[in-house]
Amino acid sequence: MNFEKVVFGFFIVLALTLNFGFFVGDIDNPYHHHPIELCAALAVSLIATIIKFGDRSQMGAVLLATSLVADLQLAIAAFIWGYTVNVSDAGMTNETLASIVSLSGGALLANLVSVTLLVAETISIRR
Amino acid sequence: MNDIVWLTMRRMRAPLIALILVYVLSVFGMLAIPGQDQNGNPIQVNFLEALYFVAVMATTIGFGEIPHSFTDAQRLYTYMILFPNVVAWLYSVGTLIGLFIDPQFRAVLALSRFKRQVRRIRGPYYIVCGFGYTGRMIVAGLLKRGIGAAVIEREQKIIQSMALSERFAHLPAIVGSVTDQDLLDMAGLNPAIENCLGVIAITNKDHVNLTIAITTKLLRPDLPVMARAETRRVVHNMLSFGTDHPVDPYTIFAERLYLALKSPAKYLLQDWLISVPGTRLREEMRPPDGHWILAGIGRFGSRMAAALDRAGVDYTVIDVHPDRVKARPDSVLGRGTEAATLEAAGILEAEGIIAGTGDDMDNLSIVMTALELNPNLFVVSRQESPDNDALFDASKADLVARRSLILARRILAVATTPLLPVFNEHMVHQDEKFARKVEDQLEEVLNGYSPSLWTIDIENELAQSVRAARQEGVDIRLEHLLVNSRMPEMHRLPCVCLMMERDSLRLFLPKPSQELMHGDRLLFAGRGQARREMIFSLTEPAALVSLATGRPQPRGILMRRIARKRAAD
Question: Considering the entire predicted model, what is its pTM?
Fold first, then answer.
């Protein structure tokens, strides 16, 4: 067993599960989407990206790309959330929440690709 | 560029992960603990406030308890998270700074800068391998003639001092093994780089120069290679795979000595053409053809001996190696630095002496002792280290064989005026009269200072006026190029056309009436101002045509058409 692989897999899968946890529920219902969950998803996604740094293989490049996509989507979602709550006068509306959740849905897709690639790679290595 | 990003990413992985983990967990805790406003009402800490507070705390900026004073529970929690946050932060910053001073990282940085600088060179340039005394002289000479250089040098110290010098600071330079194929590729062997003119290999190791020459000839057979080679074996080896110019400084010097002995006029002309432009023209020198003494018959001495043999000059050898002395009858065993040995070799009757040992101080001592014994001697001395220039200048030697100077001059001549070696070869095989004729012509235009040399290729933008002349139906002759086209009256430019090359045809000292054509290559010697005027005449379409027809040439199409019609009537 390779400890590095455990950490690698852990963060990539955790990024997906947290993302899913935030995404799941009615799209515009504030009770179904908690900001801490979004924050955790973004943080784990960032860590997953950093872990993928420095892998110069073909697979590594694609994994890094999917992670960057997830980061981008989640960061935009988090920024919109922060802006709506703290800066804008209107406060959180159903429409804004819907767009935040749909952004995280995009990130979820990217994370799904990431995990699929990880699984594919793991299966393809025979020892 | 890519390497830098990857290296940074790999090194920053652990600190960044630690930073994010500690930061996010601290924020979560901050959110979980209730606070209170200034009236004591319990409030929930907002997400933004938590993020902001932890960031300000972790970076040790510390704006205080924001936005309201903390409760005891909050303070206790802050106390707990304070240290891990600061440590994680410092860890990241420290790793980043450590990365910048890491030698491996700096090497990668230097490499990428070198690559970028090479790509940015606009004009033609040479790859110069080895940047010692000779390399420096060659690069300075190249720069003076508007040719760039990319330098590869093994010594870190030399590259560092290069960055401090005003002349060389902007040149692409890299510390590295000069035989590294990747480096050479980056420096210009890559076929995608088109403005690389060739490779100059002048490290002080023959074998290294040989490796560079082979690498270049294998990767880019079209690029000319100039390589320093100090033994005959290496010279032959280099020639065998097509090295264009193996340069052996001692053989060059021996040839020059032979020329000086046999034909002072040719020697003088050669001297004028290869000396640094703008220095005083040397007077003719006549080495005596009586008895000579040759002190030291090693690598240098044996070449001198061959030159003396060829010139039919009689000489006595002094050497410290018994086997070398045994091989030559009538030789004297000794250093040559003592009067006794010199006397035994016949210094009192001799007319010339060559101090050719491998040690500069020995050579100086030989020169001084010999001149004390016989002040009328013609003295030739070998100088190894360029640091001793001043000593040899003061030694009253008539000729000093300075290895790096000989190397630099020859390589510069080949690199900047490729026609010069051709002319030289021709001149050496002509009789004295030819050399005298060139000298007379040169003397007329130079006022006592050595000439600049330049090559004019009549093509591209320099062919403009020749093209214009063809349209007008007039011939451009060499004499038109030799006058100042900006002066109303005839004003001859201070230069001499040494040779003209047209495909396989070579004309030496062409006549002024020689017709010029597109594609011709001309070698001139003269004052630099003549070159500027010449380039002006060649690039200004109307200038030469006006000279050839004797009438000012209209510049506009309409006026030109009218003039042509008028001429036809």
Answer: 0.74
